[in-house]
Amino acid sequence: MSYDTGDYDGVARRSDVEQMWLDQSIEDMKWVLSTPQGRRVIWEILSKGRLYEFIEGDEGEVNRALGRRELALEVHAWLFTADEKAYSIMGIEADKRAKDKEQLLNG
């Protein structure tokens, strides 16, 4: 959909609406990040995106992995926009979960 860039009132209104949607999106992410459960879900999405891993395989596997990575990058940017401290909190929580899991598995 296009709009008339010469319509200054329309452009300003469109900008205001887009800012309102962006602000709401950031508030939504802050709400998700406010709970351990929400942070776990976001951490899982980022993990499945393999942000910091080398991707290899056949063309189809690589393309699927790059698609997951693209989504994870969007979520990563969204979370840092909402709360730049959340990622380090999530990392600490993930380390604790991994240690707890290991302890349960090993008795």
- Rg: 19 Å
Largest sheet: none
Q: Class by helix and strand content?
A: mainly alpha
Low-confidence runs: none
Keywords:
single chain; 107 residues; mainly alpha; 0% strand
Break the fold down into its secondary structure elements and pairings.
Elements: H1 8-33, H2 36-48, H3 59-82, H4 86-106
Helix pairs in contact: 1-3, 2-3, 2-4
How would you describe the overall organization of this protein?
This protein is an all-alpha fold and 107 residues long. It has one domain (8-106). Helices cover 79% and strands 0% of the residues. The mean pLDDT is 89.
Outline of the structure:
The mean pLDDT is 89. The chain is mostly helical and 107 residues long. The longest helix is centred in the first third of the chain and has 26 residues, at 8-33.
